[in-house]
């Protein structure tokens, strides 16, 4: 099985004993049978985010359906905010116990539990008879989404082969647009149904990704890091051997990964008390907490909730009031975003996280929201129809820049910044802040658009500038190294001595040198700090 072995290239800009994960494989992933099997199972986990995307696009689409509007009394302003905002309340409630649950029962069972909750919520939502019932269903769905959104990024990040960690963890949130696209075009199709089933039928489809999760997540491998934490070291080793090394016992990556996982967990046990205060106890954890918390807010504050939940209101504000036209624009926008999001997931390791985030924000502001603000103001003050059509173009351009990077950052960049000992707490905190931000903006957006109109976009322009400054001065680069080695960026020399073992690296080099099919190099690879 020598041809399945990983190639160990030691030495990056982060240290002489770090591993360049981009050099581990000599062929594309689909040429390795064990990686095809691993990513086949992980595709089930990636699908959970499609539920969230379907939900967001659904609430946009429902606003174009006359039967939904008539059934619930044509909600606007604060009342419309209730329809969208209550989803976040369920997520906020789940925060109080999810951090414990995901460590107690594991990542897989947490995802499955969330899928069951979503199915229940979707059923109630689809047959709602009044605002209270519909809003309650939205809260239940939000709680289920929080279960999945907590466990899925952890499982993908901790189970993926080191070479593909960034792409897969970023791809998780990218599939938001798959669900959003499905909901947008299905909603367009149901415009022709002349009854309440025009909205009830599309609502029922929201449970489809959750049913897939319930049926197939049982067969997905569990996180090796969680297994080691629970004392199931041999089971963790078997998973890495099978899915990262193709069953090849001589593969140097097996010993390397097991060493880094066990030494990292041991280091964290010695330096962590297990309480929530650990998030602020050390400089490294304070830095992690800042990155996660600021990113959670900024991803929602830079306009995505406005476009994701209130596109119909935005379009109506520039004279686009035909329901079919609104649905077509919504469907085209979600497909457009999905294409750019997939491209971003593909190149995230090539260009690096910081460069992608900064260029995304720059383009989003200068080529998206700023000209959008100007054109919307011109349309409002002068009634120039051309300015209104220009707004649509700038919505597409700004959304493209956002989708390339920021859509995937929450499941890619922030999760790899978290050390294992605080990962569940930070993931739950992230979900809390994301959902609290979504809830807040879902109440704020329709009210602001109704009362101050285009001036609200100026606020978003300022927030994007603030986001750029925050990223430039406080977000570190994490590309090209293993998940455990990211800890050395935040925790410094102590983590380097505990995690990066020169003897292990030399043994891996010697181990591989005995196998003629594996090329071993030791060289310095430049890595952006």
Quick recap:
The chain has 529 residues and is mainly alpha-helical. Helix content is 74%, strand content 2%.
Describe the structure.
Residues 41-479 form the Major facilitator superfamily (MFS) profile domain. Its main location: membrane. This protein has two domains: 27-222, Growth Hormone, Chain: A (Up-down Bundle), CATH 1.20.1250; 277-502, MFS general substrate transporter like domains (Growth Hormone, Chain: A, Up-down Bundle). The protein is mainly α and 529 residues long. The chain has helices at residues 33-46, 48-62, 66-71, 77-104, 107-126, 131-159, 165-174, 176-190, 197-204, 208-216, 224-229, 233-243, 252-271, 278-281, 283-301, 304-316, 323-351, 353-382, 385-409, 413-417, 420-451, 455-474, 487-491, 493-499, 502-513, and strands spanning 9-12, 15-19, 521-522. Helix 2 packs antiparallel against helix 6 (131-159), helix 4 (77-104) runs antiparallel to helix 21 (420-451) and helix 8 packs antiparallel against helix 17 (323-351).
């Amino acid at each position: 099985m020598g041809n399945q072995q990983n190639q160990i290239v030691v030495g990056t800009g982060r240290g002489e004993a770090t591993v360049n994960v981009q050099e581990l494989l000599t062929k594309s992933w689909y040429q390795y049978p064990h990686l095809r099997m691993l990513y086949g199972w992980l595709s089930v986990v990636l699908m959970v985010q499609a539920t969230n995307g379907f939900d967001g696009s659904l609430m946009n689409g429902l606003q174009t359906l006359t039967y939904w509007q008539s059934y619930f009394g044509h909600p606007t302003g604060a009342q419309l905010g209730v329809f969208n905002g209550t989803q976040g309340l369920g997520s906020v409630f789940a925060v109080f116990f999810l951090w414990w649950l995901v460590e107690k029962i594991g990542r897989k069972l947490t995802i499955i539990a969330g899928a069951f909750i979503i199915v229940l919520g979707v059923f109630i939502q689809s047959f709602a008879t009044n605002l209270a019932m519909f809003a309650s269903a939205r809260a239940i769905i939000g709680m289920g989404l929080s279960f999945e959104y907590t466990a899925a990024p952890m499982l993908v990040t901790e189970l993926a082969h080191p070479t593909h960690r960034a792409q897969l963890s970023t791809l998780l949130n990218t599939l938001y647009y798959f669900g959003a696209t499905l909901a947008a075009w299905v909603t367009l199709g149901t415009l022709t149904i002349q009854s309440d089933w025009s909205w009830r039928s599309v609502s029922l489809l929201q449970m489809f990704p959750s049913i897939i999760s319930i049926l197939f997540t049982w067969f997905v491998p569990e996180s090796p890091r969680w297994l080691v934490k629970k004392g199931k070291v041999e089971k963790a080793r078997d998973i890495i051997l099978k899915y990262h090394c193709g069953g090849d016992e001589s593969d140097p990556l097996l010993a390397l990964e097991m060493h880094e996982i066990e030494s990292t967990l041991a280091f964290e046990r010695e330096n962590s008390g297990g309480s929530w205060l650990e998030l602020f106890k050390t400089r490294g954890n304070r830095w992690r907490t800042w990155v996660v918390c600021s990113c959670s807010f900024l991803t929602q504050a830079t306009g995505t909730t406005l476009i994701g939940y209130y596109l119909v209101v935005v379009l109506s504000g520039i004279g686009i009031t035909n329901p079919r036209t609104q649905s077509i624009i919504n469907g085209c926008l979600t497909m457009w975003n999905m294409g750019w999001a997939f491209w971003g997931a593909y190149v995230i390791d090539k260009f690096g996280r910081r460069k992608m985030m900064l260029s995304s924000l720059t383009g989003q502001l200068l080529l998206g929201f700023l000209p959008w603000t100007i054109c919307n103001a011109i349309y409002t003050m002068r009634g120039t129809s051309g300015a209104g059509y220009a707004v649509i173009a700038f919505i597409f351009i700004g959304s493209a820049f956002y989708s390339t990077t920021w859509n995937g950052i929450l499941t890619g960049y922030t999760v790899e910044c978290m050390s294992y000992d605080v990962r569940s707490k930070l993931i739950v905190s992230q979900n809390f802040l994301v959902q609290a931000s979504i809830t807040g903006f879902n109440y704020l957006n329709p009210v602001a658009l109704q009362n101050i109109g285009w001036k609200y976009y100026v606020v978003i322009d300022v927030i994007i500038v603030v986001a750029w400054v925050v990223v430039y001065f406080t977000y570190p680069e994490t590309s090209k190294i293993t998940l455990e080695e990211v800890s050395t960026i935040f925790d410094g020399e102590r983590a380097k001595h505990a995690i990066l073992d020169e003897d292990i690296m030399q043994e891996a080099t010697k181990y591989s040198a005995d196998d003629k099919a594996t090329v071993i190099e030791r060289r310095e690879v430049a890595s952006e700090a």
